Amino acid sequence: MHVVVVGAGIVGAAVAEELARRGATVTVLDMRSPGRGASHASAGILAPHTEAHEGTPLLDLGTRSLALYDSFVARLGERTRRAIDYARSGTLEVALDAAGASALGASRAWLAAIGVPAEWMTGADLRSFEPALAPDVEAALFKPHHGWVGVQSLIAALTESARLAGATFESPIAAVEVVPHTTHADVRAVDRRYTADTVVVAAGSWSGQIRIAGIDPVPIRPVRGQLLHLEWPATPGAAIGLPSRVVWGADCYVVPWPDGSVLVGATVEEAGFDERVTLDGVRTLADAAGRLLPRLRDATFLAARVGLRPAAPDGLPVIGPFGEAPRVVVATGHYRNGVLLAPVTAVMVADLVLDGRRDPALDVTTPDRFGVGSTRKNREEPS
Amino acid sequence: MHVVVVGAGIVGAAVAEELARRGATVTVLDMRSPGRGASHASAGILAPHTEAHEGTPLLDLGTRSLALYDSFVARLGERTRRAIDYARSGTLEVALDAAGASALGASRAWLAAIGVPAEWMTGADLRSFEPALAPDVEAALFKPHHGWVGVQSLIAALTESARLAGATFESPIAAVEVVPHTTHADVRAVDRRYTADTVVVAAGSWSGQIRIAGIDPVPIRPVRGQLLHLEWPATPGAAIGLPSRVVWGADCYVVPWPDGSVLVGATVEEAGFDERVTLDGVRTLADAAGRLLPRLRDATFLAARVGLRPAAPDGLPVIGPFGEAPRVVVATGHYRNGVLLAPVTAVMVADLVLDGRRDPALDVTTPDRFGVGSTRKNREEPS
């Protein structure tokens, strides 16, 4: 079986690796180099119980995917002998005021109701648990099962593992068009043409721009995220050290790496395909980070990054085949959770493509839910 | 005559070029590559009537140096055929509140008293003069004779012009020590030794760290400055365009280049030799720039830079020979005005070294004013 995967971000790379490892012949096409879209500006936080709400499909997918992460990372590390930055050291969600503490209390209640471990902390306990926190933090909720992964090292391991299983990566490829048939699908690049048993469109924010003949575009829009890359200030003597875990505030989150690198994310901006780091993005994150962890004000500023997250109108991932074009499978719309959801997405897609096994979650994530793809609509408009 | 110049920042490069062009054999030693100290983070503003106060020696030096700038830049451009970014488009000093406007009014008064052109602007006149200004700007003082220069292009032209006149640049050089004699001076690097008729120490913030045998170090301290490099946001349609001149506020100044580059400077920090760009430095400048020119909030963030300005205890430049070691001339302590003062410094040093002509300003700038260098002091302390 030959599968063409369009997109080599975290989702495309994970899907390609899973397919290749399970025996498919895989070609990955990307318009840039691997991991340069939303993945480029991801802080790699694995926090389904902060990102998703009670009883939602996103929470189900997130918890399923988080459960896969230990073995996902271990397998990639073993296959490639690459070090993958990864820690399940928890996330500390903090409230800087009474209103925030009240919302945090509500989270605590529903997490307790579904049996998810989360520890409520205030006062001296919190100070000694995380001395770097701002003194005006009211309360915090520690979720010990959460964690973070180094996205660049993860993508490097995924692409290498996929290559070890025979996958090929081609980039940059311009102007991809997919032409579905009953038994297969063609992919046309500018000067090349691929015929595949299945095509997986995992092009992130650009997924709606991949022309699929006879099918309306998936309604994915880009949501800009800016991220700061800092270095925790050297602390001679007994000064306050690096936080021991992800700290998550109302206006930013902070991922401290054991080597002193610190990622601060992320803005959430409706800016179309404008992939610029802006002065105000940097200012907003710098301000929020300093309020959360005052020592960060003296952190070394290394760089600012930007990525466009792919968002569907309902905020849920878009995973599955088109009813009208079953040889074309999409895997996009992961919004802020592409890194978290990559393992489960890869398994769902590979189960479907290789074994015809349809994960029940596909009923929720199907691209057909937008009413696109089910009928051909002619969109020719007067120019 | 052989002159060794220690330091290839804006001052060292200008001194070397002047000496070489006027016939000296010049060797320039730098611990880094040219222009990597304070010059690296300079916005290149030429504004003696904003930086200096009425009746001060700094104002005299600044106005003398500004008067040299047109021919300085023209000569370098002709000699090297290099484009030097330079404009005498004025500076617009703005006040964001009533207290600032009052201080600005005082500046206007003393400038008028000494016959310096400066135009007071408020209200609709100011809006039409500079539409990008924040609406809450109270008043502004336009000084049409001020300007700015692109420091990197200027240093590149200076070093090339010096080389055309036979100067040699050696870098990186470690651990320089100067040994003065009556008729000459030796310079010892780690593995090299130079004998010169005169040694010029123009090592910026590091000038106090150049050991000069028998002479106490010049009391220069580094004052950190951080600078942002932005790009004015593209403005489709009739949106607000790039400012036409330097805009100078209470908390930052903004230098718009015709190509859309924008420099925002600068922090003033006592941070020793800590040459880091910090989160708070970036945040402070971003905040101030957005308050001054709101359109800048959407500017593209390209980079942040840092430099250490050399400051003497009295804030004045330190230029001239040591009484005890007349073959060693210093040229440092230019603090925030190295770029402005480079031409006059070069002329003062070359007049002295080549022609024995002692500029009266040397009475003010002499290193002997600190009581160092006039007697050998043994500083051996118990360890």
Secondary-structure blueprint:
The structure is a homodimer of 383-residue chains.
Chain A: E1 2-6, H1 10-21, E2 25-29, E3 45-46, H2 48-51, H3 57-80, E4 86-87, E5 91-95, H4 98-113, E6 119-121, H5 123-129, E7 139-143, E8 147-149, H6 151-164, E9 168-170, E10 177-180, E11 185-188, E12 193-196, E13 198-201, E14 211-212, E15 221-231, E16 246-248, E17 253-256, E18 261-265, H7 279-292, E19 300-311, E20 318-321, E21 328-332, H8 338-355, H9 362-365
Helix pairs in contact in A: 1-6, 1-8, 3-6, 3-8
Summarize the structure in words.
The structure is a homodimer of 383-residue chains. Chain A is of the alpha/beta class and 383 residues long. Chain A has two domains: 2-79 and 150-219 and 314-376, FAD/NAD(P)-binding domain (3-Layer(bba) Sandwich), CATH 3.50.50; 97-144 and 222-311, D-Amino Acid Oxidase, Chain A, domain 2 (2-Layer Sandwich), CATH 3.30.9.10. In chain A, 30% of the residues lie in helices and 25% in strands. Chain A has nine helices and 21 strands. Chain A has helices at 10-21, 48-51, 57-80, 98-113, 123-129, 151-164, 279-292, 338-355, 362-365, and strands at residues 2-6, 25-29, 45-46, 86-87, 91-95, 119-121, 139-143, 147-149, 168-170, 177-180, 185-188, 193-196, 198-201, 211-212, 221-231, 246-248, 253-256, 261-265, 300-311, 318-321, 328-332. The first copy, chain A, has an eight-stranded mixed β-sheet with strand order 6-7-5-16-17-18-15-19. The longest helix of chain A has 24 residues, at 57-80. The radius of gyration of chain A is 21 Å and the shape is globular. Chain A starts with a strand and ends in an 18-residue tail after the last helix.
